[in-house]
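User: tokens in, sequence out, please.
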């Protein structure tokens, strides 16, 4: 009998492929977060709406290339005006989430931004409770206590705390949770379900249309300012192009990791990713941290892990 078993070349190459996907997912997620922070805070490019519009433009173009030309997934058609209206609604919430998140990075360190972002399960549970008849087991709601308590503790111990940045970060986290719940409600029928790649293909161009007037009104002459910056330092163009491409690869690798592992694996990896992003950002930006702040973040992460376990056991 052969002892090679699980270590056959196809199995090994499959594991290596999955590891490569996970590494790409981590790199793109953490990379876009750190580059956003660098551009909006350290570099001095103070235009979060325009930056988000660049992201959405790249997502529109690269989604079309990936689906229509490279056929990464089959293209799914929008079947009705009602379905299109639902996608527009999701896109509006999606825009609010990304813009608010980028605005918060102007004022908050990445470490605190990630601590607040870890409370997504709390907002998801609240919106699901309000908007659907779905109720979780009581133990699931109990696990949300450390999720919220940890952020309260971290806020008190954050030396770089900024109220407006904090409000924007909370708004981004709540909007991310709202989109998740809305997506489950609005695109729940079999004829309307879209995989995440096709949903991005339709949402991203709508987001560009929504963000364009906001950019023109709230960030006037941003294109002229960017071109003036480019004449002094051409690197700003490369930063924006690379950052926008990374924003798309976050979505692509997210889809591929889920496809080749599972949604649960992605959830576990996401919890770890937040901690890795915190450590890397502190090493790069050298923002001050306190024992109280790190203690609060740790409590939040433990709460998120307990919440995930409780949901899994009560399915």
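Assistant: Sequence out:
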């Amino acid at each position: 009998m052969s002892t090679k078993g699980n270590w056959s070349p196809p199995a090994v190459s499959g594991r290596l492929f999955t590891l490569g996907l996970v590494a790409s997912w981590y790199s793109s997620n953490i990379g876009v977060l750190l580059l956003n922070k660098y551009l909006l805070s350290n570099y001095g490019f103070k235009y979060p709406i325009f930056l988000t519009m660049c992201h959405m433009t790249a997502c529109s173009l690269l989604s079309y290339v990936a689906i229509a030309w490279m056929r990464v997934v089959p293209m799914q058609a929008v079947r009705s005006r009602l379905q299109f209206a639902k996608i527009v609604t999701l896109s509006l919430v999606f825009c609010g989430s990304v813009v608010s998140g980028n605005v918060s990075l102007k004022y908050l360190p990445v470490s605190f931004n990630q601590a607040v972002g870890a409370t997504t399960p709390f907002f998801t549970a609240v919106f699901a409770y309000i908007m659907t008849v779905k109720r979780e087991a009581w133990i699931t709601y109990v696990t949300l206590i450390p999720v919220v308590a940890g952020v309260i503790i971290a806020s008190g111990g954050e030396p770089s705390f900024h109220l407006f940045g904090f409000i924007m970060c909370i708004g981004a986290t709540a909007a991310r949770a709202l989109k998740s719940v809305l997506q489950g409600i609005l695109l729940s029928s079999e004829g309307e379900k879209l995989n995440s790649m096709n949903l991005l293909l339709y949402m991203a161009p709508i987001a560009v249309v929504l963000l364009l007037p906001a950019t023109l009104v709230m960030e006037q002459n941003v294109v002229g300012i960017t071109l003036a910056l480019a004449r002094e330092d051409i690197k700003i163009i490369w930063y924006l192009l690379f950052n926008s491409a990374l924003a798309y690869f976050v979505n692509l690798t997210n889809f591929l990791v889920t496809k080749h592992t599972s949604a649960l694996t992605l959830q576990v990896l996401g919890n770890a990713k937040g901690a890795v992003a915190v450590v890397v950002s502190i090493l790069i930006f050298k923002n001050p941290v306190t024992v109280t702040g790190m203690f609060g973040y740790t409590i939040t992460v433990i709460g998120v892990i307990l919440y995930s376990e409780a949901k899994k056991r009560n399915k």
